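Researcher: Good morning. I'm working through a list of sequences from a screen, and I'd like to move beyond sequence-only analysis. For each chain I'm collecting a predicted structure so we can compare shapes side by side. This is the next one on the list. No need for commentary yet; just the structure.
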Amino acid sequence: MPRRTLLAAAGATGLAALSACTAPSPPRRRDPAADPTPGLPISTSHPALMMQILAHPDDDLYFMNPDTQQALDAGTPLVCVYLTGGEATGINRMPGRPVPVPDKAAYSSSRHQGLRQAYATLLGLGRFAPWQKSVIELHGDHRAEIDSLANRGRRVELIFINTAMHTTYGRLGLPSLWQDRRLVLPTVVADGSPLRKAGSYTYDGLIDVLAGLFERYRPSVLHTMDPDPDIQHSSEAVRRRDSEQQGYSDHPDHTAAALFTWASLVRWVARTTRDGGQVPSFATTAFRAYYNRHWPKNLPPTVLAEKASHLVPYGGSANWRCGNPAGCGDYNVGGDRPLTNRKGWVRSTHYRYPGPRPAVAAEPDGRLVAYGVLGLRAVRWRESTPGSGAWDAPDDLGGGPLAPVLGSATLPDGRHLLFGLRFSAIGGHGADNEREIVALEQRSPGGPFRAWQGLGNPVHGHDGGRRIGVPVAVAAPDGRAHLFVRNAEKGVSTRVRDTAGRWSGWQDMGGGEIQDGLSAVVDAEGCVHVHAAGRFAVHHWTQDAPGEALTARTQISGVPVPGDGPAALPGADGTVELFYRAAAKAAVTTVRTGETADETGIDGYGRLTGGRAGLDGYGPVAAGGSPGAPVLLGRTASGLLQLRTPRGHFVRRRGPVALDGPALHVGKDGRPTVVAMGPDARPWIWRP
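Model: Good morning. Structure tokens for this chain:
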């Protein structure tokens, strides 16, 4: 994040202005197109490595922890790439002291030092541990500072691209570079950097540099920011106070950094697979940012305290003797200020594309099958033999470039349907930016698939169409398949596939504003239910009878508000149980729905049925049915996976850590299986 007052101060006078020049518009480059056809070879032999592409120093600490910390603690090497210098107005203000003289090179250097202090402590070293500073040669004769530190087999590298945060016209640099074909954006040389000479970037130059870094490091996990933030209508005064871009709930630098990242990934994959090359095997996770300001907070006190503690060495203090003459951190972020800031950014970690990362189902022969996204493309893993816990090599199903999470449904005849959110067009300089929902249908149970089918977008217009969420689907006993997507207005839209395979048009289901992370289940009577987390209640849509349209029902407002999307589990008596962690709480809340208000005696409907002992932690909960009691999957406060079954409580303490979105599958015998992706972008199976 930048200095939080930079939007209001962007036009301030008396500051040394970095120059950004314009040039004649270059001809639009024609990249190799992303190929959605299946059957490409997939690279499978590579070590785990996590790469993060950030707009500013501290974006990772505010928005990507605790995920980053858990992967690093597990020994995954980490490479962080910061696209801007973070110099803002050049004022590194220490609360309670006079405003210092603006110095952009010094402020950029001080923020870099704050990052070194934070990551040194994350590696288990003292905050002033010495780093190795050097210069890395990048694509197109570009150069950047790279700082490296290792401890006990763990390693962090920080790469500072350091583009200027503002143009000479007072506009933000990175968003302008995305939009303006003529712009040449200079870099900032931080004080004390081994890099002595400033450079400059064009739009294509930055994309090529990022694609080159992907090729050099071959990350298995790529963390990025939100390319398509929510629409947010605020007054100009509120927008400036919250440091948000006009009309959207995020900083424009965050959005531009994410768009450059996704465009670079598309370019890299297209180049790598051209002429029969292998699909690079990596998983992506995109994190929300200023979104956290507007929705219930989802981190309980223990997890929040740990996350916020890593911003203390980043913020630093002017009183510290860190060995960096330009400064010892981003002083306005020091101490307890992340926790006392009314905006509350640090109090949540939200994914742009929430949901189970592997979509798990059973094959006719009893083997598990998992569908996921690798290298921006859909893939399928099959268990080598039933119950073996080992996977065959993945099959490429194509369809890319796709967002990280797939929706899925199993038809009554056993065939699988897959759904993806596709970046059908992504580019700057006035190029189209389009998103669409796509579907893949299996020809026969356990067999091959048909060609990908475009299902369009529930929102008209390219800009609104970018705001949609991940597809969620469920098949009803009557043979219909129901598809649901969070739309740009933060409601839910649906399409229905009939028994002949024909799709209806998109329909808005009405109701209030909700977060992404929908649940869709079918009750004992054959009616479909959708539940979602709102700002003040759980939202519910269902049918009056099987085959009828889903409509919004009374909000479940007499129960705690969820921090993440609820998990739903239908019961044999026609009710549906919901499982979730309430905002900022560690315990699991259980709500039984389907009873009348007269029976529950509370506002709205839904009856609290008590917590689930032994499942305290954080993050979303998954639920599955089994004889005796529900099976629940969640995380402990330290991020380990834990499972609650009728046989007891189990915690997975060995093996690879799990990326976001572990999946729970309960077989016909009632035995639970957990499938998750590790930092090496490979799925693993846990059957306690």
